[in-house]
Design brief:
It is built from nine helices and nine strands. By secondary structure, it is α/β, with parallel strands linked by helices. Strands 1-2-4-5-6-7-8-9 form an eight-stranded mixed barrel, surrounded by five helices. Strand 2 and strand 3 form a beta hairpin. The longest helix is centred in the first third of the chain and has 34 residues. The site of ligand C2E has 24 residues, from strand 2, helix 2, helix 3 and strand 6. This is EAL domain-containing protein.
Length: 287
């Protein structure tokens, strides 16, 4: 009991400090969303056929004046919790469609929406507004949602996705394979594309079973008529293991580039990666 008391005295200031840090993050995040403290960067998505950039994923960044760049893995859940995610989605959709409209026509853009966006009635209107405001061809826009989004509020979410799809926007299922196994209803979801999570990629260069697993998933998605992106390709060895076994339409990962500014995507739009199919161990530099 004596120790217990002492312990509480010791931890109390820390709990207090943690609470205050959190409160401060919340206040700062609200301010950032309202006053333009967020920005968007774009990670290239490469065609496995042409080895050129065909699209990119819009990824939100929060540049905190004192703490530096804060990861969306931290501020997105916080924004969901305090009910301001729709403001972030509106901002990212607006910025990404405006930028994409300035790129060559064959380059599209993907925007992540959160599960919570589909609890909100405004999400469909937000997508329509961004398209109207930018004049972007809806066929160039992809909305990414995770399995969790599709499983919670199934009917409501599916109805909203169907409305977004009716605008000509395509829907991608993000981080596939990390949530509940969605296999039994994969063919019933209103989705066009599947993004296989990077956890399936990490050891494919060294583990035959991992390679067979990802190849099987790609094949399954194809047999359901979905196009496939493999995420998280970091090394040339992973790429050269993957391509003889599976042909996902598109590839994404640090091997091809991490997120760039909108102008960076424009510059990269002419690049061709110099590893063809079948891949030979050559340089992974952009020509
Ligand atoms: P995500 O949608 O799966 O996005 C891919 C994440 O993986 C990005 O992290 C990207 O930088 C990272 N990544 C890409 N290639 C590689 C690779 O080869 N290796 C490794 N280790 N990582 C790679 P980021 O930007 O930190 O975003 C994390 C997550 O935050 C995203 O995962 C997405 O779920 C969420 N997020 C980001 N921007 C937004 C947004 O605007 N709205 C919403 N709702 N969520 C967002
Ligand atoms: Mg995503
Ligand atoms: Mg993903
Ligand atoms: Mg992810």
């Amino acid at each position: 009991k004596k120790n217990g008391k002492a312990r509480w005295q010791l931890f109390e200031p820390r709990i207090d400090e943690a609470f205050r840090t959190r409160q401060r993050l919340i206040e700062d995040l609200r301010a950032a969303v309202e006053k333009g403290g967020l920005n968007v960067v774009y990670q290239p998505i490469i065609s496995s056929k042409t080895m050129r950039v065909v699209s990119c994923e819009a990824l939100c960044r929060w540049n905190h004046p004192e703490l530096g760049v804060i990861s969306p893995a931290i501020f997105i859940p916080l924004a969901e919790e305090i009910g301001i995610i729709s403001g972030i989605s509106r901002y990212v959709l607006k910025a990404a469609t405006l930028e994409c409209a300035k790129w060559p026509e064959r380059i599209g853009v993907s925007v992540n929406l959160s599960a919570k966006d589909f609890h909100d009635d405004s999400v469909v209107g937000t997508v329509r507004e961004a398209l109207a405001n930018s004049g972007l061809d809806p066929a160039r826009l992809v909305v990414e949602v995770t399995e969790t989004a599709l499983l919670n509020n199934k009917l409501e979410t599916a109805a909203k996705l169907a409305m977004i799809r009716a605008e000509g926007v395509r829907i991608a299922l993000d981080d596939f394979g990390t949530g509940y196994s969605a296999l039994s209803y994969l063919h019933r979801l209103p989705i066009d594309k599947i993004k296989i999570d990077r956890s399936f990629v990490s050891d494919i260069a060294t583990n035959k079973h991992s390679l067979k697993l990802i190849a099987g998933i790609v094949g399954l998605c194809h047999s359901l008529g979905k196009s496939v992106t493999v995420e998280g390709i970091e090394t040339f060895d992973q790429l050269s293991a993957l391509l003889p076994e599976a042909r996902p339409e598109t590839l994404q990962g640090f091997l091809f580039g991490s997120a760039l500014t909108a102008n960076g995507i424009k510059t990269m739009s002419t690049a061709v990666w110099q590893f063809g199919a079948p891949p030979k161990p050559r340089s992974s530099q952009i020509s």
